[in-house]
Design goal:
single chain, 352 residues, 13 helices
Amino acid sequence: MSRASKLLIAIASLGLSSFVCDNASAQASAATTCQPVTVPVALAEGGPKAYSVSGKLCLPASGQANSVILTVHGATYDHNYWDWPYIPQVYSYRNFMTNAGYAVFVYDRIGDGLSSHPVSTDISVNSNGYVAHELVQALRQGQINGYTFKHVVLAGHSLGSYTSWVEAGQYRDVDAVILTGIAHKMSSTIGTILSQDIYPAQQDPAFQNLGLDAGYLTTRPGARNAMFYYPATTDPNVVQLDEKTKQTATQTELNGVFATAQGSATYYSAFINVPILIVDGQDDVIFCGNGAADCSTSASLQSAERPYYSASPSVTSFVVPASGHDINLEVTAPLWYSASLGWLLSTAKITP
């Protein structure tokens, strides 16, 4: 049986066939507008706005929305993680949410994609959090293409969820937070994964001519499949595109992932004072099992993570079955997209 046939069976077994068809029809009829923007930012409070963030503000077919979702991608990715160009009716969260009537802002974090690439040591989880804070304020104040939004939802993945901890916990200026690909404890295998699969971007053919310093890191060729995916629900075409479009992370950022002292991302997670949705793949090798969170069910993930968010009025968990770390890039993605929409409407009370 071919991999394509297996994927179709997986979609059918998870009840996604009608969703994919319906969403494809919606996409064909919707005229979503995505506007490229460049936003000047500083890397720390009081610093000069000497850097630029490259992003896209995507509006629903109506051309207007009261609520915007600000997405933050993880390490070695860019904005494409949230707006995947291959079969977007399955893999693009941006596509799903603009079809539902929300505006979505996707961007390349500093150090990735078309955004500025400063010295690697200037990029940290905390600087990422401050940049996200600047974007939140810009979206609220009409500084991005003149659109002003009443509600801003922060959605992060992996390193982007650590960034979201800092932004939402320190600056407290968003209305809800969606955290994906994260838990407060990591698998005991993380050290082996990082030592085997991460190396200086200078050594990778894709980045050798960019002049990046030794603190910029990326994944070794061929490593992404085992790190980020669950084989049964993975399209090899997605993995090939993932490898082709991979980006970097900095050593300083990765150091911040493991920090727990005052002022760290983990520290700020306890200060988030808005509704939180936590979403992990059941087969995430980084954050589920082997000493990390129990992701066997949504209830077990809820039990593991709720105590860490003492300031939040509401913490909801959702486990995506048969899915790895990159929940947006598995055929199961529409399951959590739909769950997040339901959560926004019923729990966070944030309408488009």
